[in-house]
Design brief:
alpha+beta; 4-stranded antiparallel beta sheet; DUF397 domain-containing protein; DUF397
Length: 58
């Protein structure tokens, strides 16, 4: 399993609803719930993440 280096999203709120994102593995972006660091990790290809990020930035 890759060693993801997670960072908390700048869009995370102060009420505990936070996500962390890791982009240190080439071609892959990993997302997890910051409250459950041992829980599931969503992995997507970088191009899919880029499309998501563009649409969320609107």
């Amino acid at each position: 399993m890759p060693q993801f280096e997670f960072a908390k999203s700048s869009h995370s709120s102060g009420n505990g609803e936070c996500v962390e994102v890791a982009r240190n593995i080439p071609g892959t972006v990993a997302v997890r719930d910051s409250k459950d660091v041992d829980g599931p990790i969503l992995r997507v290809v970088s191009s899919a993440w880029a499309v998501f990020a563009v649409h969320m930035g609107r």
